[in-house]
Each structure stands twice: as C-alpha cells, then as structure tokens.
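pinned: reference chain
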Amino acid sequence: MTQTQAISIPVSVVAALEAAEPLPRLVTTIRPRSRWEALDLGEYWRARELLFFLIWRDVKVRYKQTALGAAWAILQPLMTMIAFSLFFGRLARVSSGTLPYPLFAFTGLLPWTFFANAVSQSGLSVVGSERLITKVYFPRLIIPLAAVGAGIIDFLIACGMLGVLMLYYGVIPGLTFLLAPLPILGLVLAASGIGSLLAALNVSFRDFRYVIPFLVQLWMFATPTVYMQTEGTIPVVWRALLPLNPACGLISNFRAAVTGGALDLYSLSVSMSVAVVLFFAGVLYFRRVERGFADVI
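pinned: its structure tokens
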C-alpha cells in the first residue's frame, strides 16, 4: 500500500497568507447598447484583420473563374469611355473644354465606376452574407465597408489606364494632382454611408435589391461625368445646387486635380460636407437596426 507523505508548511508562510488581502473581484456588467450609440472605434480596430479578409474575399469572388481576371476593373470604365466618346464626342460634339474628350470622359467615369459599384455591392452585401451573420458575432458594419474596400482596389487597378491615357494625349498633371485623394476620400465616405443605409433597408425590404440598380443608373445621368457644367447646358441656379449631389462636386474636382485644371472650392466643400453627413447618417441607421439582422435575414 502507498502511504501519503505529509507536507509541512512554515508558520510564517501560513501567517502571511492569512494576513494577505483578498484579490479584487472582477465584475462584468452586460447592458443593452443604445440604439443610437456612436461607433466603438476600438471594436472595429480589433476586427481589422476580419475587414482585410472580407475585402480580399470579395475581390477573389468577383474575378473567380474569369478569363480576364482583374482586367475587368480596367475594361469597365474603358469600354464605357469608348462608347461615350463615339456618341457624345464625335456625333453629338459635346464640349470637353481644353481636354480631349476620351480623357475627359475617362477621368469622370473612373471615379464614378468606383462609386456606383461600391454603392451597389455594399447595398447587397448584408443579405449576401446571411450564413456569416447568423453563426458568429462581429461588427456587422464591416460587411458593407468591405464591399467599399474591394471597390477601392478596383479603382487603384484602373488608375493604371488613366496614366496611359494621360501619356498618350500628352497631359502632364500639375501640383493639384496631390489633392486628387481628397475627392476620392469623399466618394469613399459617401459610398460607405449610402451603401450601409441601403444594406440595412435591404434586410427588411427585399425589393430594395431592384431599387439599387435603378437608383444608381438615374444617379449617373444626374452627375456630370461625361458632360461639362457650363452655362449653355445647365442653368446658373442649378449649377449652384448641383454640389448637393456629392458625386457631382467630387468627380469634377477629381478630374480637375488629375488633369491640372482649377479646383472649384465651392463645389468641393459642399459635396465633401454632404458626403460626411451621408456617411454618419447611414452608419448610425445601420447601427440602430443591426441587432435584428440575425432574426430577420
């Protein structure tokens, strides 16, 4: 039989243990989040790796089993530019100022293609991620933001064709080229806000999947991407109100910054302000209703 060996503990150690203060108890309080609570930036920073993974997933899925792959990011604005150059540039003789019309159209279609795709993809993103939402918790806002992030990658790829066209037509950008990221940032904010709003609405009202393409198509004709804002085409009063359409002022100033033109500070400031308002309005509404996504979707 085995015998149990007694272990002697010094009296000083026992006295020290008895005199020691008990460790403080950690209390975790679980409370419902306010429906209009602001963004918890720390939560999104901790989930940044998930955001990068979802962006990469969206890019891979978009070009999976395609013959041209990421070249479609270039072909979409390029083919649209060719069509508009044929009908508007040669047949309708639409004015493009001092720029060749193909370059004029491409510098407008490039940011517009990013904005339109970002709004469309993010607006349908939450419904398309049904299995992910119903199985694990993570900040839901990451899903529409990842769709916008994937559009940024397409935009950067297509910028290579913009450089080629500028070399072909001999257009050398000036110092204003350094300001080109500013209107793109505004488009990112506007697309994120509008896309988040549409994504939240699409969960409850599935007919928004038909509204989104129609809305984007109408929005393009309301934005001077392939025509100029001149007194002959647009009345002065309407030209003052056009920057309320964020895509209008941001795209026109992107074109001016890239091609060395003069920036319109009025339209840039108004459109940038509208983009910021749309971003916070869309994000706050998304946060307000996201708690019910798993039950409704």
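why pinned: The first helix runs from residue 11 to 19. The CA atoms of residues 59 and 65 lie 12 Å apart.
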